[in-house]
Each structure stands twice: as C-alpha cells, then as structure tokens.
Amino acid sequence: MPHKKVAIEGIKALTFYADRKTAARRTEAIPQLQCLGKPCSKFQPPVIQCINAGLDDMGGVQWRCDTDLPSGVRLGRTDVSCEGWSRAGDKNVLQGKRLSSPVDLLY
C-alpha cells in the first residue's frame, strides 16, 4: 500500500496504544506511547486519545489528551510529535498511525 500524506492541522483526533508502534516512512517505527514519571512503574495507560484543539499563535496544533487513570494519578505534560513527510517540522505527515506521545503521569 503506498504512503499518503495529510496536513497535520486537518487531523481531528488521534488514538495512541501502548502495545503498538508508529508507521514510518523516513525513520524507524517507535512505540506510540512512552510513559514517564514515577506512577509509570505501577501503571501505564493502555490507550490515550488526543483531540485537535486548534492552532497556537505559531501555527502548531494544540492537542487535548485524555485517558482513564487510577484515583490520585493524572496526566502531566503530554507531547504529540510526528514524522514530517519530507523533513522534520513538515506540516504534512504520514497518513495512519504515525505519531508518538511521551506521557508524564503525576501523583
């Protein structure tokens, strides 16, 4: 199946799975989720969904991410990153599962 590109600002929602890797065209596939922080030693979210919340003043997509977490644990910083179609920072990305999200869990 040939690769297709899509504008990142046109993506409405993304779902990341802890047990899956990204699709890749220019780079190596990596895990879709990377859990950081002390709670990760006891709990790692199996799935996180991120919704496109609009563009910031620099034209970058702002993502609002959510998942079910145990009581007393919350999402900290969540960074959604992608492999640009032609180069790093390209506004066009590979269609399909091509993003990864480091997730910081906090007590």
From TrEMBL:
Source domain of life is: Eukaryota
Q: Where in the cell is it found?
A: Endoplasmic reticulum membrane
List the keywords (alphabetical). Answer: Calcium, Calcium transport, Endoplasmic reticulum, Ion transport, Membrane, Signal, Transmembrane, Transmembrane helix, Transport
One Pfam family named in its UniProt record: SARAF
Under the heading InterPro entries, the entry gives: SARAF
> Could you tell me the Gene Ontology terms of the biological process aspect for this record?
calcium ion transport; regulation of store-operated calcium entry
Q: Provide the family line.
A: Belongs to the SARAF family.
PANTHER family listed in its UniProt record = STORE-OPERATED CALCIUM ENTRY-ASSOCIATED REGULATORY FACTOR (PTHR15929)
Q: What is this protein called?
A: Store-operated calcium entry-associated regulatory factor
Q: What is the lineage of its organism?
A: Eukaryota, Fungi, Dikarya, Basidiomycota, Agaricomycotina
